[in-house]
Design goal:
2 copies of one chain form a homodimer. Chain A has about 300 residues and is α/β, with parallel strands linked by helices. Chain A has one domain: Rossmann fold (3-Layer(aba) Sandwich), CATH 3.40.50. Chain A has a 6-stranded mixed beta sheet. In chain A, strands 1-2 form a two-stranded antiparallel sheet. In chain A, a hairpin with an 8-residue loop joins strand 7 and strand 8. In chain A, helix 7 packs across helix 9. The termini of chain A are far apart.
C-alpha cells in the first residue's frame, strides 16, 4: 500500500486524482475540514456574531456539515450553531432521517428546530403528491417539494433567529445545476448558482454553501470515516431523469478528465460577474397572499398551491 | 410506413424528434435548405454584393454547404460563390478529399482556390507532426492544425478577394465547443462561439456559419439523400479525447431529451450579450513577425512555430 503523500507516515486510503495526492485517513479528514475553512473564508460566509442555522436533512452531506461547522466554530465563541430540519411528510423515509438528525443534535448539544409541511402548508408531501398525480401532470412532486422546502428552511431559520442558513450543497450539486440550467435553455439562471446567496429582504435569511467546493464522493468517504450514522436510502420520489443523466455525464467526465467538475465550477465563477451585471436587479416585495418576499406579486409557492386549487 | 406530417402525401423517411415531425425525402431536404435560409437571414450573414468563399474540406458538411449556398445564391445574381480548400499535407487522407472538392467545384462551375501548408508554412502537417512528436509533448498535432488551418483559410479567402468566409460548423460542433470551453474552465471564450465572427481588421475576412442550427446527423442524411460523394474516413490525427467525450455525452443527452443541443445553443445566445459587454475589446494589431492581425505582439501561429524552433 503506498504511503500518504502529505504526512509520509501512514498508508494512503484515498487517491485524489484531481490533485495527484494519495492520502491517509487522518490527512484526508483534515483536508476536507481545511477545504471547508478555505471556502468559508474565500467567500466571507460568516461574521463573528452570526447565529448559523445548518439545514440538516439527516443525510451524509448535511450531518457532515453540521459536525464540521460545529468543530470550526468552537474557535469562535460568539458564533452560535443550531440545526433546522424540514419534515416533508414522506412515510417510511423521512422518519428515519429525522431520528439521525435528532440524535446528532442531542449528542453535540445543539438547538434543533423541526418544521413540517403539515404544520406550514396544512398537508404532507405524500398528500400533496396525491393531488399532483390527479391534477397536474406537468410538474413532478420534486418540483413542488423544492420550492416548499426552501421556504420552510427560511421560515425555520427565521424562527430560531438565525442570521445565516448553511446548506450542504456540494460540488456535484452545483455543477449539475449549472449544466441543467444550460441544457434547459435557462443559462441566465447560472448567475444564481453561487456559494453565497444574499437575502435582499429582511425576511430572507442569507444562504451559504460551505461544501460547494467538495466533491460528493469525498463527503461520502468523510462521513464513513467519521462513523457518522446517516440516512442512506434515497427519497421515494425519484429525482428528475435529466438531473440523473447530467450526474452520470459529469461523473464519466471526471473519471476521464480528473478535475472536470472543478473546471466547470471555476468557469462559472469567471463569467458570473458579467451575468450579474447584465441581470436586472430583482426588487423583492411582499407576496399579496402570504406576505413572504417575492419578485412578482404572487410568490412561486402560492402560485403552485393555486394551480393545485389548494389555496 | 407513416406518412409525412408536412405534405401528407409521401412516406416519411425521417423522424425529427425535437420537433415531432415525420418527414418524407423531399420535405426533409426542403427543411434543411429552409433552415439554412432562416439562419442566414436571422444572423444577417450576407449582403447583396458579397463574394462568398466557402471553406470546402471535401467532407459531407462542407460539400453540402457548398451545394446549398450555390442554390440559394442563384436568386441573388450579384453574389459570387467560390470555394477555398486547405491541403494540410496528410498522406493517404487529404488527397481523396481534395478530389471530391475539386470534382464538386468543376460540376458546379465554381472557382476553386487550393492553398497548402507546404506552400504557406514550408512544411506539411505530416512533417510538422514529426517535429511535434519529438519536441512538444503538451499539444497535439490537432492544436497546431486548428490554428494553421484557420489562418490558411483566411489567406485563401483574401487571395480570391472574398468578403465573407463561410464554414460548415454545425449545431454539434458549436455545442461541443461551448461545453468544452466550460469544462476547460475557459467560459469567457464561449462568447466567441457564434454564428457570425466579425473581422475587426482589414486583413481578417468575416466568418459565417450557415449550418450552426443544423444537427450533424441531419447534414449526413441530407448529403446521403442528395447523393453527394464525400470523404468519409476520419483524419488519422485523432481528435482530442475530451471533444469525443463531450460529443458522446451530448448525443446521449439528445437521445434522452430531444432538443437538448438546441437548448444549449439558445442558452448561450441569451448570455452572450452580457459576456461580450464585459469582455475587453480586443485591439488587433499586426504581428511583428508575419504581419497578420493579432491581439498580442506575436500572433498565436508564430508563437507555435517559435516553440517548435521552426522560425
Amino acid at each position: 500500500m503506498p504511503v500518504c503523500t502529505l504526512c509520509h507516515k501512514h498508508d494512503a486510503i484515498y487517491m485524489r486524482r484531481y490533485s495527484g495526492e494519495r492520502l491517509c485517513e487522518k490527512c484526508f479528514k483534515d483536508s476536507i475540514e481545511d477545504k471547508v475553512r478555505t471556502t468559508i473564508s474565500r467567500y466571507k460566509m460568516f461574521e463573528p456574531n452570526d447565529k448559523i442555522a445548518v439545514a440538516v436533512s439527516g443525510g451524509k452531506d448535511s450531518l457532515s456539515l453540521l459536525h464540521i461547522l460545529n468543530d470550526i466554530e468552537k474557535n469562535f465563541p460568539q458564533v452560535l450553531i443550531c440545526a433546522v430540519t424540514v419534515d416533508e411528510g414522506i412515510k417510511g423515509y423521512r422518519d428515519e432521517a429525522l431520528e439521525f438528525a435528532k440524535r446528532s443534535c442531542q449528542k453535540l448539544g445543539i438547538e434543533h428546530k423541526i418544521v413540517s409541511f403539515k404544520e406550514l402548508y396544512k398537508m404532507t408531501l405524500d398528500e400533496l403528491a396525491d393531488i399532483i398525480r390527479r391534477k397536474e401532470k406537468e410538474l413532478s412532486p420534486c418540483s413542488y417539494c423544492g420550492v416548499l422546502r426552501r421556504r420552510a428552511l427560511n421560515t425555520a431559520a427565521r424562527q430560531v433567529e438565525a442570521s445565516k442558513l448553511a446548506t450542504a450543497h456540494n460540488l456535484d450539486d452545483e455543477t449539475q445545476t449549472i449544466l441543467l440550467n444550460i441544457i434547459h435553455g435557462d443559462a441566465l439562471r447560472i448567475a444564481r448558482v453561487k456559494p453565497v446567496l444574499k437575502g435582499g429582504h429582511p425576511k430572507l435569511i442569507q444562504r451559504v454553501k460551505p461544501f460547494c467546493e467538495v466533491p460528493e464522493k469525498e463527503i461520502a468517504l468523510y462521513a464513513y470515516l467519521k462513523n457518522t450514522k446517516f440516512q442512506s436510502i434515497p427519497c421515494p420520489y425519484a429525482r428528475t431523469a435529466l438531473r440523473n443523466d447530467v450526474r452520470t455525464m459529469l461523473n464519466t467526465m471526471e473519471e476521464r478528465h480528473a478535475g472536470a467538475k472543478f473546471a466547470v465550477f471555476r468557469s462559472i465563477e469567471r463569467i458570473r460577474p458579467a451575468l450579474e451585471a447584465s441581470a436586472q436587479k430583482e426588487r423583492l416585495q411582499d407576496c399579496k397572499l402570504c406576505g413572504e418576499p417575492t419578485s412578482s406579486k404572487i410568490c412561486k409557492l402560492c402560485q403552485m398551491l393555486q394551480k393545485l386549487h389548494i389555496i
